[in-house]
Design a protein that fits this description.
94 residues; alpha+beta; 2 helices; 3 strands; 29% strand
């Protein structure tokens, strides 16, 4: 018998990417929404989908009842601050 973690179903994740310039300043690279079992899995899914620009990533697991809206960045990177703010309003994650 092996000690294995139970397999969990993927959840939606909001990923935000930054490129750290120094300990106080970061360049925001954009955000995306992807499916993943954890933040590392979600970041890998974003890389495979071509919407992970690199840098540091912060992931927020979205609610279980989250539903995609047509204007949300599913598997695509958005970088425009206005588009990001609009997505945050739709999702209420600001």
């Amino acid at each position: 018998m092996t000690d294995q973690q139970p397999v969990t179903a993927p959840n939606f994740w909001w990923l935000s990417f930054v490129d750290r310039i120094d300990h106080q300043v970061a360049l925001h690279l954009g955000v995306t929404i992807v499916l993943g079992r954890d933040v590392g899995d979600a970041a890998e899914a974003a890389r495979i989908a071509g919407c992970n620009p690199g840098g540091e990533v912060l992931g927020v697991r979205l609610r279980d009842d989250f539903r995609l809206h047509h204007s949300l960045p599913y598997c695509r990177l958005i970088t425009d601050p206005g588009d990001i703010a609009e997505a945050q309003l739709i999702m209420d994650v600001s």
